[in-house]
Amino acid sequence: xxxxxxxxxxxxxxxxxxxxxxxxxxxxxxxxxxxxxxxxxxxxxxxxxxxxxxxxxxxxxxxxxxxxxxxxxxxxxxxxxxxxxxxxxxxxxxxxxxxxxxxxxxxxxxxxxxxxxxxxxxxxxxxxxxxxxx
Length: 134
Hints:
- Helices cover 63% and strands 0% of the residues.
- The protein has helices spanning 29-41, 46-58, 67-98, 105-131.
- With 134 residues, the protein is mainly alpha-helical.
- α1 packs across α2 (46-58) and α3 (67-98) runs antiparallel to α4.
C-alpha cells in the first residue's frame, strides 16, 4: 500500500452478535471486477461490500432500481431543480414589478421558456413512469 491509498476499512467486530453464519457466492470474472471496483470505491473488501449491500437491500434501506428507472428519477430531479430556479426568477420579477419597476420582454420570455421546458420534461417523465415504459 502506498501513501495515496487509504487503508481498507474493516468492520468492527461485535461481541454481542458475532457473525458466525457464512454464505458462499460465486461470480464470473466480469461480475467480480465490477464488485471489486465498487468495493475499492467504498474503501472496502469485496466480501464486506457485498454483505453491506445485501443487508441494505434486505432491510429496505436502499431500493435497487433498473437503470431506466434511475434515468427517469434523474430527469424528475433535474426538472425539480429547474422548477425551483424558475420560482426564484419569478420571485425576482415579482419583486421588481411590485416595487413599481419594469421587466424586459426578453427576461419574461426567458422565464416562460424555462417553464415550458420544465413542464414538458416533468410531463414526459410522469407519463413514462405511469405507463411503466421499460
